[in-house]
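Aggregate trends can hide what the representation actually does to any particular protein. For completeness, the protein is quoted in full, as a sequence line and a line of structure tokens.
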Amino acid sequence: MARTVKKPDERREEIIKAARALFHSKEYDKATMQELMKTLNIAKGTIYHYFSSKEDLLEAVVEDLMDEELKKKETLIEDCRRRNLDAVQSIRALATVDRMAEENEDILDALHQPGNIIVHARQLGRYLTKLAPIYAKVIEEGCEQGLFKTDYPLECAEFLLAGIQFLTDVGFYPWSNEAIARRMAAFPSLLEDLLNAPEGSFDFLIE
């Protein structure tokens, strides 16, 4: 049987998808590159041509998950616009449908391991860089609708997303449940102040 030759992008994507399935079915620590090679029926040299290590592959898998989530959010916002929802309703939709962490807990937990802290920080920065413009556009629309008032929609989005992520992520620091609860209780009021939004606009964050 003739060997199937795939384009580099196709082969790389195939490896990432297979690794994502493997990390879902088996703990990251217990999964091996050899298992992946066997699943894909590819040589060691092939997989290491694309990924220098299992950690490098984990980063690619997490990046794939994040890109998928970003596409979902972009689609969601377009749907909110078609339904003529205002900016507060759109932010509520964005905030309440994010299930990436819950659905991929087994993979994302690997980022909390000491050896992957750099990967964790780099991927978080990448995610916020791509996610903030989505929120910024909604904030701009809120200003046009008279719901918000700020001259810095992108910076507000970056500040809020980075702050909430860092101050509630026990993977970066072992925050206590009390500390996280205290911050979550304050977020709606802080968000209202930052965006000059009507009182109670973001109470859904603690419902």
